[in-house]
Automatic annotation (TrEMBL), chain A:
Coiled-coil blocks: none
Keywords: Membrane, Transmembrane, Transmembrane helix
Species of the source: Rhizobium leguminosarum bv. trifolii (strain WSM2304)
Membrane-spanning segments: 20-49, 61-82, 109-135, 147-163, 169-185, 316-335, 355-379, 391-411, 417-444, 465-488
Protein name: DUF112 domain-containing protein
Classification via InterPro entries: DUF112_TM
Key word Magnesium present: no
Record domain DUF112: where: 20-438
Matches recorded under Pfam families: TctA
Automatic annotation (TrEMBL), chain B:
Regions crossing the membrane: 16-36, 48-69, 89-115, 127-145
Assigned keywords, A-Z: Membrane, Transmembrane, Transmembrane helix
Stated name of the protein: DUF1468 domain-containing protein
Organism: Rhizobium leguminosarum bv. trifolii (strain WSM2304)
Pfam families: TctB
Amino acid sequence: MSTFEFLWQGILVAMQPMNLVYALVGVTLGTAVGVLPGIGPALTVALLLPVTYKLDPGGSLIMFAGIYYGGMYGGSTTSILLNTPGESASIVTALEGNKMARAGRGGPALATAAIGSFVAGLIATLGLAFIAPYIVKLALVFGPREYFALMVLAFVTVSSAFGDSALRGLTALFIGFALAMVGIDQQTGQARLSFGIPDLLDGVEVTTLAVAMFAIGETLYIAAQGNRIAEKVEAVKGSLWMTAEDWARSWKPWLRGTLIGFPIGAMPAGGAEIGTFLSYATEKRLAKNPEEFGHGAIEGVAGPEAANNASAAGTLVPLLTLGLPTTATAAIMLAGFQQYGLQPGPLLFATNPQLVWGLIASLLIANAMLLVLNLPMIGLWVKLLTIPKPWLYAGILLFATLGTIGANPSVFELGMLLAFGLLGYLMRLFGYPIAPAVVGLILGPLAEQQLRRALAISQGDVTTLVMSPIAAGLLIVAAAAFLIPLILRIRGRGQVLSQLAANED
Amino acid sequence: MSEDNTSSATTRRPDWAAFIIAVFLFVVAGVMAWDASHLKTIAQYDRIGPATVPQVVAFGLFCLGVWTVAEAWRGEFPERDRQEVAPVIWIVAGLAGQMLLLRVAGFSIATGILFALTARGFGKRKLWFSLPLGIVLSFVVWAIFSQLLQLTLPAGPLEHLFF
């Protein structure tokens, strides 16, 4: 069957009334939670995971996709109206968007963000649908050593290539690895790092770690700042609609942002931030009136927002085709797949095409729903921003613990949640990124499995890892991605990299 | 550029808190290596076994610890803002309270306490208001999630009163 036929089948699956309801619930919850300040898409997905526990896999993944896209939309609203971006990928949107809102042009800023996200989401999801089968074909020739090399590359890009310190990124990654070792070894059945505690035999749950570090760590950090950070929600004044001039200035940045964002998301290169920064820089260079940048230029909202959503769809390419999460959000989505015993990858396309294509098609539907949901109902979402901080964070912790209790109602699990929450707070305090720890926890065991398989095939000969051209090439790229930023930082050119810090998504 | 770097390096002092991080990394590496050596005593016939990767990770953590010491000595960690301790203690107390009371008092009461103490950490002092509010809210959440979405959430006296 061709891609068109598969996609058509997927649309038929996604159009089933129950699946439409799941998608609608997903986008609504995703937007509502994503709008809340301090909550990015990764935490949105982690917090809402328990809602899907008792659904069937298809429905739950469709709801999940809606939550993911909804969280991205919600984040842009937060950063435009409140100068604290809910997610790191929206930092750039806040630069120009918040200035526009202060100048009374919040409506057009929100509109260009929403429509730009829609355009980018549409193109990028179609891109995902058409690229995925090719990567699946490529992945079929991948053996254990190629997979291992690919994961090494992902580890490097997630932890040390971007951000302000390779040391802190790698440390976070290795803490994730260390936690991943806890539990029963999958191949020999021996208990590792469990110290005779039965609760540790199952290992550390990805969702527990993600919720603890993102929700509890963040809450503790915000609380520890006292009342120093003054926040002001900009009211949406004036017309919500974009003028003809706004349209004329927006459509090119939307398309350029999509073109920049999608490939960056699709490569194992980490977060959506990089695309948004590149898009912002591009728009600034191409703008007819660059002096407007920094004072509320609509191009500076349209481009990065499109890039943001395009790379969100892009990250689904390695996730679905290779089972390789390159962002914290994707790592949690992988955990969502695993709770149904599904391992994304080339096999899933062969064994469960209905599910995969239904998911891809439902992304298209979720995207359209979000446009309808966001433009007319923006006033409702803005109200969520005015929830006073004490109630907001009390509520966040209520739902954060709810997820953990729902997954495993044990005192021990809550103890881990508290311990990791404190760890997350300290990491945040000392400038350690969180995402590498989450990615290390979920990808660590998979990398170990591939490594041991590769070495078992070669009977323990380590050189086998570089004997295949694909694996050797990937490892060389990984080494370059590790060393080049290190050299740049030593030579004092690290500022560019720290701007690209992959913090949350 | 390079001038800038040297001048800031000379003014910065060793960062003692960062040394503690290094110690923590050494301890984790040590525990992992110890645990891995413990695994070895069990029959293992090929060179690549369950102990291999933990040993590699332990070695990696050890190297990162050394690197941390170097950066801490040169004071290269980012500067930290002054942290308020009291709110953190309130919230941790809330989480600990929920953890300990969950089995005895059920989801609503335990989570209500977490809710009230978190709000207290953010400056809502009126516990007589926030505690009942938290319990009612948690109860609504409990009802939705355990009855509609069939999640297993521990029930206590309050939940048994209604369901």
